[in-house]
Amino acid sequence: HQTESSSSWRVFVLACALPSLLASFAACVWIPESPHWLVTQGRTEEALVILRNAADMNGLDSMEIFPHSVDIMKSGSSSTIGMNDKDEEGCVRCAELLQPKWRTLNVLLWCAWFGMAFGYYGVILLITRVFQEKSPGQEPLFNFSSILVSSSAEFLGLTASIIIVESVGRIRPQALFFFGGGIFSLLLSLSASAGLSVYFLTAIAFCLKVAEMGASTLLWVTTAESLPTEIRTTGHSVANAVARMGGFLCPFLVQDITPFWIVGSTMFLLHTVSAFCVLWLPETKRRKLGAVS
Q1: Is 3 left (phi over 0), alpha (psi -120 to 50) or beta?
Q2: What is the 3-state secondary structure (H, E, C) of 190-252?
Q3: 3-class SS string, the chain
Q4: From CA 171, how far away is CA 251, in angstroms rounded?
Q5: pLDDT of residue 6
Q6: Which of 202, 160, 186, 156 is nearest to 271 (CA)?
Q7: 131-187 residue pLDDT tens
Q8: Which residues neighbour 147 within 8 Å (Cβ) at sequence distance 6 or greater?
């Protein structure tokens, strides 16, 4: 026999999985295949169709850029598009990201991504911990209203990023979001430890989620635009892998047995380091993709 409370988590998991399933279906239907991969498979005509469509979407004359007479040539297992320092499949090896010309950029990105994931997922756990009440021998009770209000702040953070990214830039707003995330993480932790009003805690949590979402969104843009074309895919993938490490480690910090002041101080330190790493990244506003030095 299953009670409503024992099965409700299954409904929640299903509801969380549906958007991913729908997005996967939409991606299979509407997102075009990689032209580079198509060329490596000898499907050059399909690659040209996608490239022409991309040119049309950007307001360019596709037939002028890719006329009928154009052809994408292959040499061995790689296309003629720059394949230096790549393996036989045309992919950059992860170790090559640490070559002198790319080392500093990649290390800065890895530090920023680690801090972003640690902070983003750590804040989710921190807010959940702040708005829960525990009684001995009973299941914890959560203030879902405050959690919902703070979660809705991600819409504001995303909207702010969309407005700021072209009007102000990527780097300075991103660093400000990271630093703000550190400040609000520390403030929320200390306020929760002091037992301040739930309304004040909710307001701080709201501001914290705005900062986290803004930093995360702008870091995605910065990473794709700052990495050179020849290492963009591999570099972005490795940065994401480093981020998963941050997401994996944050629960060990934000747990019930860790004092709030330690959680807040650690989060502040990681956010501050991420902010300084971001400040060393190149500004990519209004610069052509792949033209950032």
Answers
A1: beta
A2: HHHHHCCCHHHHHHHHHHHHHHHHHHHHHHHHHHHHHCCHHHHHHHHHHHHHHHHHHHHHHHH
A3: CCCHHHHHHHHHHHHHHHHHHHHHHHHHHHCCCCHHHHHHCCCHHHHHHHHHHHHHHCCCCHHHHCCCCCCCCEECCEECCCCCCCCCCCCCCHHHHHCHHHHHHHHHHHHHHHHHHHHHHHHHHHHHHHCEECCCCCCCEECHHHHHHHHCHHHHHHHHHHHHHHHCCCHHHHHHHHHHHHHHHHHHHHHHHHCCCHHHHHHHHHHHHHHHHHHHHHHHHHHHHHCCHHHHHHHHHHHHHHHHHHHHHHHHHCCCCCCHHHHHHHHHHHHHHHHHHHHCCCCCCCCCCCCCC
A4: 28
A5: 57
A6: 186
A7: 988 766 667 788 888 999 999 999 999 999 999 998 999 999 999 999 999 999 999
A8: 127, 128, 131
* Token code pair at residue 217: 């969104």
Amino acid at 166: E
